[in-house]
Amino acid sequence: MRYPRSMCAGLALLTLCWGMLAGGARAQGLSYQTITPPLPPLSGVLGETPRDKIEVIQFFYYGCPHCFDQQPLIEDWLAKKPADVEFRLVPALRDEKWLPLTRAYFVLEALGQAKRLHRPIYDVINFDGVLLSDEDKLFAWVARNGVEREKFLEVYNSDAVKAQVEAARKATADYGIKATPTLVVAGKYRFSSGLAGSHYDAIRLLDKLIVQVRQEKR
């Protein structure tokens, strides 16, 4: 898939890091990494995951072309997600340039608009080349898409969103997120599509690890 020329420079470092991580893992013959010790389910300002559920986290960034590519597969997977699995989205925060879109996700979630606009954000960035990491363009875009601009700005600058951003920053570090998208199963198993082999392989690996976690619980 070809991406708009205006995106290339901004995504070059991200793509390089993703590729380096994938290459290194393949050289060792690994498909996933184990987090030791395992991390507990998400809680606090990022929301609560029920203790009886198998938590699956996708660490993502809206400006990441790999996240954009994986998104349709995630949507298909969610349509048949097992009942004992809780899927969580956490915007990865590895670069201060990612801050506007990290805050945007939490604002849309607070306003009940995240489900409706999650995919369109990816689409407008990757198909139309609109750099929503520019706050002026972000605010204009959400207003065109049915979100009251003043309300969005109020929540965008709120203490609640600032707390969520810091929690996302901490989670990115705690879970050792080096590339996006990265999936984490039960706070224990971490992998990118590069580690798994492809986006399709990542979904297959996700299903296998969920089964593995079930067996470990017995």
Please tell me about this protein's structure:
With 218 residues, the chain is an alpha+beta fold. The protein has one domain (5-217): Glutaredoxin. Helix content is 55%, strand content 11%. It has 9 helices and 5 strands; from the N terminus they run H-E-E-H-E-H-H-H-H-H-E-E-H-H. Strands 1-5-4-2-3 form a 5-stranded mixed beta sheet, with helices on both faces. Helix 2 (65-79) packs antiparallel against helix 4 and helix 3 crosses helix 7 (159-174). The longest helix is centred in the first third of the chain and has 23 residues, at 5-27. It is globular, with a radius of gyration of 17 Å. The N and C termini lie far apart (43 Å). Mean pLDDT is 88; it is low at 1-30.
The CATH first-level class comes to Alpha Beta
Could you tell me the mean pLDDT?
Answer: 88
Coarse morphology: globular
Measure the end-to-end span.
Answer: 43 Å
Number of domains: 1
State the share of residues found in helices, binned by percent: 55-70%
> What's the assembly state of these chains?
single chain
Number of strands: 5
**Order of SSEs:** HEEHEHHHHHEEHH
What is the gist of this entry?
The chain is of the alpha+beta class and 218 residues long. It contains nine helices and five strands, in the order αββαβαααααββαα.
